[in-house]
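Supplementary Methods. Inverse-folding protocol.

Structures were first reduced to a discrete structure-token string of length 294. This string, shown here, constituted the complete conditioning input.
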């Protein structure tokens, strides 16, 4: 659907089932598949799913306003069994895997929680103040957030038949907005707007989508000094390893190619951990050649 080149640097799974690596993306899709089976067994708004969706109190199924706080995070779980739901899962898996590889599993999991929780909290607050009503359920809105983040970072990634990612994102968000506006579904429109905002602010806060300078870059630093110390220590170790690696690569005193020179500059400024797996292999191969010559 889009160019298959892997972007990013970390795709470590949470665990493995046999030979299958269960990443955050795979876990979310698997949960969605299970939810479709349960939906088919119990029906729409059955005894389980009626307790999970994010819904206003007008529907008389219970709501966050009435005390069902868990709905703020459970609403993406119920997914209606449909052909288009499978397509949605496939797109979420492809794009989500790329963003998870870019951010790492912990930060990507945090990103998905933000895409779930922040829009739900805001629309619930608006419901309490302004009386908007509606409901939202399923992975659709979270998938839109992942698509927006992907398009922000890889704006020129090509989708079939050669359409840039940012165009796809604008069209899909625009269609959703027009549909919600036409139906006067302010509940869905608020959730959509918040999802797009969280996706853009989130990907910028993690240090990506640097070309979108009009989006403010929020600080992701936590209040824990211990966490900050660990992060600083990790970066320091990475830069130290990078300096050691630079010495081993360049000590032969021979000229290096522009590509290797660029990798050395990156290691010097950002540390060895900033390299992708392919880049690291290139640098290690070059280091081995230099050591053999020496």
């Amino acid at each position: 659907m889009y160019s298959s080149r892997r972007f990013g640097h970390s795709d470590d799974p949470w665990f493995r089932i046999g030979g299958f690596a269960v990443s955050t993306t795979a876990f979310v899709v698997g949960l969605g598949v299970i939810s479709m089976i349960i939906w088919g067994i119990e029906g729409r708004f059955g005894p389980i799913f009626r307790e999970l969706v994010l819904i206003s109190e007008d529907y008389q199924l219970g709501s966050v306003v009435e005390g069902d706080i868990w709905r703020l995070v459970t609403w993406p779980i119920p997914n209606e069994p449909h052909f288009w739901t499978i397509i949605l899962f496939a797109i979420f898996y492809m794009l989500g895997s790329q963003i998870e590889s870019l951010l790492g599993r912990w930060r990507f999991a945090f990103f998905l929680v933000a895409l779930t929780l922040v829009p739900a909290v805001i629309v619930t607050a608006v419901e309490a103040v302004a009386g908007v009503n509606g409901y939202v359920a399923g992975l659709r809105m979270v998938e839109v957030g992942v698509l927006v983040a992907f398009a922000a970072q890889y704006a020129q990634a090509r989708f079939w038949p050669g359409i840039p990612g940012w165009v796809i994102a604008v069209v899909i968000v625009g269609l959703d907005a027009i549909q919600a506006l036409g139906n006067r579904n302010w509940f869905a429109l608020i959730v959509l707007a918040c999802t797009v905002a969280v996706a853009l602010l989130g990907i910028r806060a993690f240090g990506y989508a640097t070309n979108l300078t009009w989006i403010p870059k929020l600080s992701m630093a936590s209040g824990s000094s211990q966490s900050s110390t660990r992060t600083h220590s990790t970066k320091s170790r990475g830069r130290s390893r990078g300096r050691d690696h630079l010495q081993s690569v360049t000590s032969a005193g021979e000229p290096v190619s522009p590509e290797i020179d660029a990798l050395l500059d990156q290691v010097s400024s950002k540390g060895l951990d900033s390299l992708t797996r392919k880049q690291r292999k290139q640098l290690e191969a070059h280091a081995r050649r230099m050591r053999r010559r020496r």
